[in-house]
Request: fold
Amino acid sequence: MTNLFDRVLPDVLVTRARMTPHRVFLQPVDQPPVTFAETYARACSVAHGLLDLDVQRGDCVVIMADSSTDSICTWLGIQLAAAVEVAINTGYRGASLTHALQNSRAKVIYVAAALVPRLAEVRGSLTYLETVVVYDALDLHDDLRIDGLRVLRFADVLGPDNTHPDRPVHPRDLASVVYTSGTTGPAKGVMMPHGQISLFARLGIEGSDMTEDDAHYCFIPLYHVAGKFMALYASLITGGRVIVDTAFSAEHWLPRVRQYGATMSHVHGPLVEMIYNQPPTPEDADNEVTRIVASPFPAKIAHDFERRFGLRGIETWGMTEVTVPVWQPHDRPLQTGCCGFVRDEYFDLRIVDPDTDEGLPRGQTGEIVLRPRQPWTMMQGYFRNPEATAEAWRNLWFHTGDLGFMDDEGRMYFVDRAKERIRRRAENVSSYDIEAAALSHPHVRECAAVGVASEFEGDDDILLYVVSAAGAPQDPEALLGHLVKELPHFMVPRYVSYVSDFPRTPTGKTQKALLRDAGKGTATWDRKAAGVSLRNLASAANEETPC
Reply:
């Protein structure tokens, strides 16, 4: 096979289309297959359409839509135009949507028709956006029009020219900005150069032994890096096939991989448990999947999951900023609870004291810090956020905030995330955003959002502590009815606990670690136990909101 590892994405795409033009690349669920040549031609048409929209080299272009042939070709077209792809969470609304659009300063957004009303809701706060390109719109009826913005159908902005644009890119050039939530402020935009996304794909191929014969079942949306870079980009390099689904369903995972002959999949830890919790049958191992890549691969079920479904589980550790530096070897037996070995040809990794940054001996838990061994293979900072960049890269090491240790053989074990970071069903959740939304309710004087252990290993549920305004009623259901209008669904808390005050430092700062450690109490209100549905709350909120 021609070596495509060291090329940037636009060069990989054109070379793959010439090498195996008629081979199927994309197989959207319940849709016609798309070849490599068709993908390339469509991406070129998108790129020329962007040039016609006056998108310049290095401009950010936003995608807000489920994975589909059109949205994937939009991502690739943005890369061919030497612009910067910014895929944002389809759950964003209100402040989180405004922040991503304003921080990226994108003039153009490609958006699903069903999500256009969310743009209209925040129109007054958008000062950079000029053009809205709508997927799946047969006509531009009144519900799709936004005052002051040019709204176009996707089909109408495809350039007639499907040749390769004359805009070469280099490993140092910015390829993507990915918004990942923090704890002390709005989501940060991770600046990913072409060298980094190429290494992402390479690690996915080498770590899971991908070949052109693999068919990757991918339900991971474009706004997450694993699907985009370790399934789609990696398969461009190998010549493999990607089965594209719009969402995860534990019930449908096994039927889907059987229906389309998938040989591998990326599945986040809690989703592994959801699949495992489906009723077992004697035929569960009757599938073509040979391996799944998981972070984490839940230790309590790992071996039985492998046995039941007849596959190999490969555990990893990584994050958007640093790719996936740690892998369990795909050709060795699974070692539960272990992330694997550092790919030390690409990374320096150390375990340090979080307070002093001094290295710690093997077996002792500390913060995981990294730096690259090759240029342009880790994030180049947080977009338009020099303070957060300087804090993360202090002492010339990237500080992950994750805690772990190394054993005597050099295997790494993940222990815990940063105390204020919340991880919910593969989403990094911003406690800052939750708190800002809650504080906009008149009955809330102070609040603090923390993660508490869920029923799934390595996953959190969200608990919101509230100090009520003077004389205000304690009505958690009404509060959540407010939050569903302000937050993505995955940020809406499951638990609400009313307290008279918070534990504080001598300077008056809320001690979130103590709140997190205290967890759920007997007086904590549980949305699920109360039978309150987020779907119903959202429907009620939409009915109350004037059009």
